[in-house]
Amino acid sequence: AYYCATKHALEGWSESLRHELRPLGIHVSVVGPGAVSTPAGDKAMQPDRPIADYQPERQRLAAKFVQGIRDGMDPAHVASKVLLILRTREPRARYEVGLQAAGVSAAKSLIPGGLYEELVRWGLGLRG
Hints:
By secondary structure, the chain is mainly α. It is built from five helices and two strands, in the order αβααβαα. It has helices spanning about 1-20, 55-70, 75-85, 100-110, 115-125; strands at about 30-35, 95. A two-stranded parallel ribbon has the order 1-2.
């Protein structure tokens, strides 16, 4: 949840900057890759005061998150997309990189919200 919150904050900030900086000729785009194989997963944030009842589930999800990053795409794939964006005269507001990111975006726009949420919980092995 911490990781997702930081990404949503960056997206909102980037959207605001895109509008504010456009008159200066500065373009802002969000690059949304799927999982990228970096050491970031090994440094996942830990809570200061974990909730005992939630601790086993949080640890399970954190391990799944770390494994997803380890199995992620080569960072060079993302770098090549960023280079392409930098060379674009009028870049779009958002770019997905990789099949995972494209699939999530497509699913969010094609599948009803409740069903999408159920699929996310199923994919994460969450009950309820």
